[in-house]
């Protein structure tokens, strides 16, 4: 399905589905619920075009898109979005080792301060993820 064949409502629905799958329904629902008249057009734009048009394209898988986002958000020093996309990358199957390598690569091209900030933000998120992964194993033991 190309964007030329897609209606705005279909883009919204596709974007909402992918956005919830990648960054979590709770996060998305909170962002939409907290959007006032000023912010709502941005939420619509992000959902329809970022998630509905680009993230649904067949050219790259979600893992690759997540790794690209981590590199770009590191470079741009967008810490809030970076944290969201670290979680999304884990959801999309990107490993901790791959995240580390993406951040090291981005550090070389974006600069050490950007890389240090990315590692500072990613560290606790990855530790939380490891703990969550270990919890079901411990309860089965």
Automatic annotation (TrEMBL):
> Which PANTHER family does the entry mention?
4-CARBOXYMUCONOLACTONE DECARBOXYLASE FAMILY PROTEIN, CARBOXYMUCONOLACTONE DECARBOXYLASE-LIKE DOMAIN-CONTAINING PROTEIN
What species is given as this protein's source?
Nocardia aurantia
Q: What is this protein called?
A: Carboxymuconolactone decarboxylase-like domain-containing protein
Q: Which residues form a coiled coil?
A: none
Family matches, as Pfam families: CMD (PF02627)
Occurrences of domain Carboxymuconolactone decarboxylase-like (ranges)? 42-122
GO MF terms held by the record: peroxiredoxin activity
């Amino acid at each position: 399905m190309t964007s030329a064949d897609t209606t705005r409502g279909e883009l919204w629905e596709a974007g909402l589905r992918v956005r919830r799958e990648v960054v979590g329904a709770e996060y998305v629902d909170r962002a939409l619920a907290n959007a006032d008249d000023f912010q709502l057009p941005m939420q619509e734009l992000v959902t329809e075009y970022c998630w509905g048009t680009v993230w649904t394209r067949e050219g790259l898988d979600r893992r690759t898109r997540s790794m690209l986002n981590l590199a770009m958000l590191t470079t741009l020093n967008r810490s809030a979005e970076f944290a969201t996309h670290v979680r999304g990358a884990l959801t999309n199957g990107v490993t901790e080792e791959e995240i580390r390598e993406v951040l090291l690569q981005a550090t070389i091209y974006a600069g050490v301060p950007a890389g240090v900030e990315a590692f500072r933000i990613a560290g606790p998120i990855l530790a939380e993820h490891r703990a969550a992964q270990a919890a079901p194993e411990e309860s089965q033991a």
